[in-house]
């Protein structure tokens, strides 16, 4: 087994920041310690496919900037909601506020995931990201329920919307805020190789288009259609529900240890190219936060010595670490090649695995 083998050289040298490791002494006041905790320094490079927010100060900064911009946008819209009574704008405001606040549990999870494994949490704290994802799903569900309930109440008891020009302006503010956040998240996400941050930017862009839908509400109200505001509010609720469906599916799959089958195929193909590997047995992949771990049994020469079998296992782990994106550890078990008529080396375990 080769999980104890240390993999010392980087997988993607071009992603590494080349700078000296001897840093001058820095102040250690509570303020500086807090800043270093919120924007941790790291020598690790970002991976290409999944978010590197935990080890990237730029990724964490993107979360905080997004929180600030969307928070200011939501506050400006909330003031207009109080002034105008528009439920369409209320639904958009609630959605923007929920989007802003979801940055908090995500940032906490990424920072918590930096903690090393210990004797209680032997796999580390990466699963905190799954819990944060569940919080995000619940926040989206709550915003959908609130926006829908408010729109239905206004549909049953329609009221005029006041200050229509201000409502239209607030809708444009919502669009501008979301579009700026979208561009920023996408730019940072692509530069650090974070697919999730890019996707979150695209999500913010769809929220911006939702803000533009409020303009339809204001336009309908200006034309005297009293049901324009609640109907647009219901349409926004439907858009939030669609986002909720996609987010819940992704989070629940991750919590159920689902992985892309193409990663399994890639791992199997990689193992078959390793010298000394004569077959691939059981192969399992699972996410621990945004990192992958693998467990696999490979078939080796039955006459190989322990050292030779261990070398094959180490080579197999090494190949997997290079080939499978976001894989950080692999536990490789070497099985002897079966001999015709020979005893099954796993026979003593049969009564534990049957059924």
How are the SSEs placed, and which strands pair?
Elements: H1 30-38, H2 57-84, H3 87-101, H4 103-112, H5 128-156, H6 164-192, H7 195-222, H8 228-255, H9 261-272, E1 279-288, E2 291-300, H10 306-323, E3 327-336, H11 350-353
Parallel strand pairs: 2-3
Antiparallel strand pairs: 1-2
Helix pairs in contact: 2-3, 2-4, 2-6, 3-5, 3-6, 3-7, 3-8, 4-5, 5-8, 6-7, 7-8, 9-10
**Roughly how many Å apart are the termini?**
26 Å
Shape: elongated
By DSSP, the count of extended strands is 3
Strand content: 5-15%
CATH class of the largest domain: Mainly Alpha
How does the major sheet shape up? Answer: 3 strands, mixed
Q: In the residues, how many domains can be counted?
A: 2
The sequence of SSEs as H and E is HHHHHHHHHEEHEH
User: Structural class, please?
Assistant: mainly alpha
CATH topology of the largest domain: Alpha-lytic protease prodomain-like
Strand order of the largest sheet: 1-2-3
Q: What is the CATH architecture term of the largest domain?
A: Up-down Bundle
Summed up, the helix count is 11
List low-confidence stretches: 4-27, 33-56
**CATH homology-level superfamily of the largest domain:** Cation efflux protein transmembrane domain
Mean pLDDT: 75
Classify the helix fraction into a percent range: 55-70%
Write a structural description:
The protein is mostly helical and 355 residues long. The chain has 2 domains: 39-255, Up-down Bundle (Alpha-lytic protease prodomain-like), CATH 1.20.1510.10; 261-353, 2-Layer Sandwich (Alpha-Beta Plaits), CATH 3.30.70.1350. The protein is 59% helix and 8% strand. It contains 11 helices and 3 strands; from the N terminus they run αααααααααββαβα. The chain has helices spanning 30-38, 57-84, 87-101, 103-112, 128-156, 164-192, 195-222, 228-255, 261-272, 306-323, 350-353, and strands at residues 279-288, 291-300, 327-336. A 3-stranded mixed beta sheet has the order 1-2-3, covered by helices on one side. Helix 2 (57-84) runs antiparallel to helix 4 and helix 3 (87-101) packs parallel to helix 6. The protein is elongated. The model is unreliable at 4-27 and 33-56 (pLDDT under 50).
């Amino acid at each position: 087994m080769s999980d104890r083998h240390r993999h010392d050289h980087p997988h993607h040298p071009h992603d590494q920041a080349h700078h000296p490791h001897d840093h001058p002494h820095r102040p250690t006041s509570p303020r500086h310690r807090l800043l270093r905790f919120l924007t941790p320094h790291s020598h690790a490079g970002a991976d290409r496919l999944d978010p590197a927010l935990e080890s990237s100060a730029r990724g964490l900064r993107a979360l905080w900037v997004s929180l600030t911009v969307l928070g200011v946008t939501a506050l400006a819209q909330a003031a207009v909601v109080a002034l105008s009574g528009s439920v369409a704008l209320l639904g958009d405001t609630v959605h923007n506020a929920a989007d802003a606040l979801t940055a908090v549990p995500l940032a906490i999870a990424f920072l918590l995931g930096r903690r090393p494994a210990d004797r209680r949490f032997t796999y580390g704290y990466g699963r905190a990201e799954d819990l944060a994802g569940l919080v995000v799903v619940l926040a989206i569900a709550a915003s959908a329920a609130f926006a829908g309930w408010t729109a239905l109440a206004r549909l049953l008891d329609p009221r005029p919307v006041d200050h229509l020009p201000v409502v239209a302006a607030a809708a444009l503010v919502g669009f501008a805020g979301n579009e700026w956040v979208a561009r920023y998240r996408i730019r940072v996400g692509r530069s650090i190789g974070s697919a999730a941050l890019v996707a979150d930017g695209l999500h913010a862009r769809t929220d911006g288009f939702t803000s533009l839908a409020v303009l339809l509400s204001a336009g309908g109200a200006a034309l005297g259609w009293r049901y324009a505001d609640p109907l647009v509010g219901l349409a926004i609720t439907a858009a939030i529900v669609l986002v909720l469906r996609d987010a819940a599916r992704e989070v629940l799959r991750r919590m159920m240890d689902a992985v892309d089958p193409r990663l399994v195929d890639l791992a199997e193909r990689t193992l078959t190219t390793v010298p000394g590997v004569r077959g691939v047995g059981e192969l399992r992949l699972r996410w621990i936060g945004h990192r992958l771990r693998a467990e696999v049994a490979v078939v080796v020469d039955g006459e190989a010595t322990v050292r030779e079998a261990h070398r094959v296992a180490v080579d197999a782990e090494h190949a997997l670490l290079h080939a499978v994106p976001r894989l950080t550890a692999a536990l490789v078990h070497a099985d002897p090649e079966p001999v015709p008529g020979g005893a099954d080396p796993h026979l003593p375990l049969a009564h534990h695995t049957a059924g």
